[in-house]
Design a protein that fits this description.
Layout: E1 3-5, E2 12-14, H1 25-60, H2 69-82, H3 87-106, H4 110-125
Antiparallel strand pairs: 1-2
Helix pairs in contact: 1-2, 1-3, 1-4, 2-3
Length: 154
């Protein structure tokens, strides 16, 4: 029996069998997809931080938050960190929080609205950092004021 040799990998087999290459493309695609999702969670984590920071500014000025806002903020963080919610659900949760907070900030000042939009822009571009925000004013109304763990996975 003669042997065949694969010109791609050098594998030798007898003429009765066959040799196939398993494509690495599906694994590379999967790795790329996972990296993209991790990057989205990273950016959404920082968007949560921006919203929490602006919430702290509202609270420190003695302003009223919409009913259930802090519970929604906490739930959004939990959904973000658990990895059990879809990117679409997290996007919707954060957008809802942003809209509610935007309405409150309209009654505070134009500068506060601009500050929030700037922070969200930095968060979504991946440039917001811990030194840019201080979540300590939230300690009086929120149990966990640490930076979400998804913000350190980059």
């Amino acid at each position: 029996m003669s042997k065949k040799k694969c010109p791609e990998c050098g594998f030798e087999w007898d003429s009765l069998g066959d040799h196939e290459h398993v494509s690495a493309a599906p694994q590379a695609q999967e790795d790329r997809y996972r990296a993209e999702v991790a990057d989205m969670y990273y950016r959404f984590g920082w968007k949560w931080v921006a919203l929490a920071y602006m919430t702290g500014r509202v609270v420190s000025q003695g302003r009223q938050l919409p009913s259930g806002f802090l519970e929604d903020l906490t739930l959004a963080r939990t959904n973000l960190e658990s990895g059990c919610s879809s990117v679409c659900d997290i996007t919707a949760d954060l957008r809802d929080l942003e809209n509610k907070l935007f309405e409150v900030l309209l009654h505070v000042s134009e500068g506060e609205v601009h500050a929030m939009l700037e922070l969200i822009s930095k968060a979504m571009s991946g440039t917001l950092q811990q030194k840019d925000v201080d979540l300590t004013p939230l300690k009086v109304v929120l149990a966990d004021t640490t930076i979400p763990s998804v913000c350190s996975r980059r």
